Amino acid sequence: MSLQLSGSRPRQLQYSASGLRRDLRLLEVDDALLGDIAAGGVVVKGGPGDDAVLCTGDRTYALKYVETTNTLLMLPPDAAGDADFGAVGSATQAPDASLLRDVGLQTQIQKASTAGANPPLVATATAVAHIEAVHCPPRLGQLRELLAACRPYGIEDEGAEAAQGGDCSGSDAMAVDGLDGLAQPGLGGGGAAGFTTAQLEQLVQASRSELLRELEALNALRLAGRWRLVDEDYLGRLLEVLLLSATEAGWPLEAVPLDDAAVALAADGYAPALVAHCLGVYGDRTDSRDSSGGSASGAFECDAAPAPPPGTTFSLDCDRVCLHFARKLLRSRPGSAPAPGAWLRSEFMAAWSEAVPEEWAPPNERLLAGEALEDLPEGSLPGADTYVLPFAARDLPLEPAPRFAALFARRPRWERSQLEPYLVALTISGGQKVEALLLKYARGSQGTPDAPLFFSAR
């Protein structure tokens, strides 16, 4: 609403006879956010110890309290502006021409006389600050903590899904209560096997779209309407049994039939829902109804995603499958020198090539970016074989400052090409560019103008 006040038509300002309200809060928003608010698609989230955020359907905004030294007076929505009093203003006698030539007290008297002819503006509320809504990364660390509090799906759960209906569909229409208890560590085994989408939306400071994308990135499983993680070793063994079955049955890795795979793996105790989940994690559906891949993608638009139709096939992704075997090898040497998980590079590449399916050997070394680091053995000569050590980006904090602290604790100086794979998650979740992150959290230096640029802690 605009009062359309003009300098040539002054109005009197009065305080409400009932006093000024001080319980209203002003929120500064842009046009896009205003449209979301008007459509009723926003919610404010935050617990007792959290800074509040405002979430739309696909974005998260930090709410910042900004104080001002100016007095802010608010008028009710039905306050009439100058446009409503054009007739009244025109009835006011025009000031004498001689008065207009003299600036000062006579002009102020004339203005007061003009203002008295119009109805006054009545202020009914005041504020000493306003709230700014600033786009920010979703706080997805809360999601990791919640899912970590639930025991991951593993071998002890085989057969349990049959008692729950045997599929991944379910309803989130249940009442969300007792959330404080659900968020306590240790739950998930036996009784509370995960969280519904509605519960996660209440507990995690992120929009629905951001929440579901992170569930997909975590390879979370939605079973009987509840989300939980799957034990990485269990899912990896399932993949390897699936690859062996594909070889024995003659299924091409670019078109693995879901129905046949579910029947073949049932003999090994794997539920059809887990077989479909595994194929979604390490591959993509080849039919046009779902080309997005991933385990959570089917639940993006609706909570109860339909089961894949008969005849569905999946194309296993070379990079995802090869990355599984790389991670398995890096976990297989817990006590190796010079650090846990360390391999001589030549030995690692040979073992990795042997582990992956024959048609995908040798695997592409670029897959190790953000998964492992290469270091020279202490005292080695230039050109010596390097060590490959596990250092995964997915295990680092999701907030920029803690992530950079962890990176520089692991290695004091980084080349940009080595550092960038560990910043990808920050650019996706926060929408920030790598250059902006490096400028804020790191310091660049060069020994000589033609030397590579290194980054260290600021």
TrEMBL record:
Keywords: DNA replication
Keyword Glycoprotein found: no
The UniProt record lists the keyword Cell cycle: no
Species this chain originates from: Raphidocelis subcapitata
Descriptive protein name: Sister chromatid cohesion DCC1
InterPro entries linked: Dcc1
GO CC terms in record: chromatin; chromosome, centromeric region; Ctf18 RFC-like complex
UniProt superkingdom: Eukaryota
Family per similarity comment: Belongs to the DCC1 family.
